[in-house]
Amino acid sequence: MRKIAIYGKGGIGKSTITSSVAAAIANMGRRVMQIGCDPKSDSTINLLGSKTLTPVMEVLQKNGGLCKNLDEIAVRGYKGIVCVEAGGPTPGSGCAGRGIIKTFDTLDEFEAFKTYDPEFVFFDVLGDVVCGGFATPIREGYAEEVVIVTSGEKMALYAAANIKSALDNFRERNYAKLRGIILNRRNIPNEIEIVQEFAERIGTEIIGIVPRDSEIQRAEERNITVIEMDPELPISKTIIQLAARIMEQ
What we know:
By secondary structure, the chain is of the alpha/beta class. Helix content is 40%, strand content 18%. It has an eight-stranded mixed sheet with strand order 3-4-2-5-1-6-7-8, with helices on both faces. Strand 7 (177-184), helix 8 (191-201) and strand 8 (206-210) form a beta-alpha-beta unit. The chain is globular. The mean pLDDT is 92.
C-alpha cells in the first residue's frame, strides 16, 4: 500500500490534480482511496458523480460523536475509488484541523485500510497551514510520501516552502518524505524556470507539469475529471503520465 499526501496552497488546484491522478490510476485497474482533508469537503466531488458523501465530522456531530460503520463515511466513486471527506466544524465554532484528527481516528477504529485494501491512498491536504491537524498525515505516520502542488506565484511557493520546513522538522522521526513537486501552471513569466530553481533549492525535483487547459474546467462543470470525460485528450494524457510517474517506486 502506497500512502501519498498531496499538499498545496488553498486554490492551487491540488484537489483537481489529486482526483485526476486517482482516476488515472484506477483506470489502470489499481485499487485507490482518496481522503479529503479540508473542511470544505470538496476533494472527491469530481469522483462521485451524483452520489452523496457525508463528511466524517458531520456524521460524528449528528450522532453524538459516534459512527456506526464505514458505510456512513465512505462511498465508492469512479472506477471503485473509495472516497472519504473529513469535513470540519461549523465555521467560527472550532478547529478545522481537529476534523482531520477525528477522521483518522475513525478510519483506524474501523480498520478502513484493511477493509478496503487499497493499493494507493491519497490524502488531499490544505497546505496553507501545516500545524496541528493539518500536519497529521505527515507526523502520525499515515503518509509515507508527500507531493507538493505549486505554481510559480509567490504565495504558492511560500506555502510550499513551509510544507518542506515541516517535513524537515519530522525528518529524524522517519515520517513522510518529500517525493517531488507538481507544477500547476498559471502562465506567469518564466514560471517553469522559477519553480525549477525553487525545487533545486529545497533539494527535490519537478515530477510533473500540468498546463492550463479549458478542458479541466469543462469536466469540472460536469463534476467529473478529464480522465473520465475523455482519456484521449492531451491534458488527460499529461495526467496519465504524471500518474505513472507517481506510481514509480
